[in-house]
Structure of HTH tetR-type domain-containing protein:
Amino acid sequence: MKKQMPTARKKIQKAVIELLKEKEVEQLKVSQICRVADINRSTFYANYEDCNDMVSQLQDYIVQYYEKLFSEKRSLTFLHLLKNIADNQETYRLFFHLHLDDNLSSSYHFSHWLVYPSNSNRYDRVFIHQAVNAVIRKWLNLGCPESPEEINALITNKLVALGLKNNQQ
């Protein structure tokens, strides 16, 4: 499942994730990335034209990774997704930090996992989507201390309390 990144790119990705804990994407500098990644500037420029190119390529990599996950597992359960997040925390931190969850809302949507009440509307769906995203983001930012099964149960219980049914039960 995991598409291997070249070693230098992996180091750069880890450095970017580390730097994004305290900075915004627009504030990243090549010199900072190289220092944190412990690489030369020439190594950075052998892989990317500049910071914008690096961010664009990281976004493309993450989107492809995410879409591949969904295409390979047509019957992907929400628990599978949570397990994948726990196993690939750095990738998903970047996924959320770059706001790719907003860009992928059509595939990263809970409608295929949930049965909404007949009287629900688009605002109900946005509310649910954002609430679930917030729980996942918090869990991820804490380093996934609870198991994927615990987070799945927590989210499922909250959704059931709101009158939604899990398609997979």
Summary: The radius of gyration is 18 Å. Residues 12 and 37 are 6 Å apart (CA to CA). The chain has two domains: 1-72, 74-169.
